[in-house]
Amino acid sequence: MPPSPSPPCILPLLFLFTIFTLPLIHTTFANNHHYVSKTPVYEPEPEPELMQYGPEGVQVPSNLVFENQYIQRAYIALQAWKRAMLSDPMNFTVNWVGSDVCSYNGIFCAPLPVSTYHHSARVVASVDLNHADIAGYLPDELGLLSELAVFHINSNRFCGTVPQTFSSLKLLYELDISNNRFVGKFPPVLLSLPSLKFLDIRFNEFEGPIPSAVFDKPLDALFVNNNRFKNGIPSNLGKSPVSVLVMANNELGGCIPSSIGYMGNTLNEIILLNDNLTGCLPEEIGMLKHVTVFDVSFNKLSGPLPASIGGMKAVEQLDVAHNRFTGEIPKTVCSLTNLQNFTYSFNYFTGQPPTCAPKVANGSDNCFAAKTDQRSKAECSSTMAHPVNCNSFGCTRTKPPVYTPRPAHKPPVYSPTPAHKPPVYSPTPAHKPPVYTPTPTHKPPLYTPTPTVSPTPASPSGMSSKGFYSPPPPSSYPSLVPPPPGWGMSSQSKYHSPPPPYVYNSPPPPPSHDESSKTYPESPPPPPSEDESSKGFPASPPPPIRRHVSPRPPRLTPGTYIYSSPPPPIYPNY
Q: Alpha helix (H) ranges present in 243-314?
């Protein structure tokens, strides 16, 4: 019987099987018994939980600690704003990191007033990004800064519109967004800010009409110059209690409302240069008794210079140049004892220039016969030099009882009878004895002849030959009187505001080749017109040409708040 074959060697197979299965057994055992390998394993730490807020998607790490809820909301608002900044060449916001928002550049905190909020938690009270050259837009999250009092971002490159969420800034006192690239109509949300006193939106691209509601607000300073506003100056201009009003370099057109006279108790500066204004200067400008700067140059104003201008007793800078004024300059100009600069060049004034010239006066290019630096005979005989009918411009007072001071004169003019009725209509009892029976009084001592030859006694002063008392004519009324009460203005002409004090810079008037000696600062000149481009009037670039110097500040009472609005930056080689 043959031997059976030997079984194959299984030892090598068992060895290979052991090598491949032991690692699997080890891994399974470690997982089931939470075995920790001695080899260190490096795993990333888990990120803190994030909470997301607002349209900009700001994420607040849960490990951040804020001192109160106001600071946390401010963090969300400022981080959203930082995301909306498209360019920050000066790295102004480089430290806008972390929960200590009060240490951010341009951010200032202050405690809440205990009397109002019953606690003194710190809040973001002021934002000042002036001259940071930041480009971007204003996000909706800025409405979270509900305790903000000051918002200054002038001289940057912010664009777009002012967000509607600004309506929650109930404590906002100063708003300066000037010298940026904002567009659209006058921001309507600004009319809903109850605490606003200082508003500066100049040097932007706003357009359309200036809403009349802005003159119903209790503002103290209003700058809307160098935009594209049109459709004239609202007729309720006189309701505004502002001390400074600058509307220059727009395309307003139309007339200067006669209600301007009602601003006499508060207005210190008004600048309306290069606004395409027409019509005549209203007589009511003489009621602006506290105005120190009055500039209506580079317009199309016509007619005479009102004699009532003598009522502007405080005026120091008076500029009516580059208009179409005719007639003689009123002598009342000589009663302006504070006048330092009177510019009336490039008009059609005739007669003689005022002999009481102020420190600086410029009357060139008019029609004064005795001077050499005047217009040609052809110009002075043209239609422009002819007198005009001011009523033809449609600027007449549509509501005399409201817009003229006539109501103050109405009682003595239209109803003098009650005061004079007794002596006019029934004087006989008082004067009858001496008139009709003079004999008993004079016969014994003076006249012995019969009474028929006695002379009739002279009638008392103010009596007619028949014995009736004739009241004297009413005395002449002054040409101007203070406006009647009302108009929604408070009895105080100034508003008190928190320290520190500021100083504002009003946009200056345009330059002229004849006016280099003026102390009044200069502003970007308007575009040349067909009839004046040959006179050397330069074209106006959109931004300012050079840094301006503010005119002499108005004389204000102690405690008056003077606002700060830095001028636009200088653009080199421009």
A: none
CA distance 300 to 253: 9
- CA–CA separation, 216 vs 237, rounded Å? 8
Cβ atoms < 10 Å from Cβ of 318: 27
Query: Do residue 66 and residue 189 come from a single domain?
Result: no
β-strand partners of 155: none
Longest dimension (CA), the chain: 211
Neighbour tally for 290: CB within 10 Å? 20
Q: Within this chain, do residues 416 and 530 fall inside the same structural domain, yes or no?
A: yes
Q: Tell me the pLDDT tens digit for each residue of 266-320.
A: 999 999 999 999 999 999 999 999 999 999 999 999 999 999 999 999 999 999 9
The answer to whether 494 touches 557, Cβ cutoff 8 Å, is: yes
CATH code of the domain containing 418: 3.80.10.10
pLDDT in tens, 69-105: 999 999 999 999 999 999 999 999 999 999 999 999 9
CA gap 253, 232 in Å, rounded: 5
Q: Which amino acid is at 573?
A: N
Q: Is residue 458 part of a domain?
A: no
Q: Is 328 helix (H, G, I), strand (E, B) or coil?
A: strand
Question: Do 146 and 74 belong together in one domain?
Answer: yes
Q: Which domain holds residue 113?
A: 48-150
Query: Are 415 and 549 within one domain?
Result: yes
Q: Token pair 């002999």 is at which residue? A: 355
pTM of the entire structure? Answer: 0.65
How many structural domains does the chain have? 2
Written as six digits, the tokens of 296 are 């209506």
Q: Which of 22-36, 136-150, 341-355 has the lowest mean pLDDT?
A: 22-36
CA angle 299, 305, 307 (to 5 degrees): 150
229 & 126 share domain: no
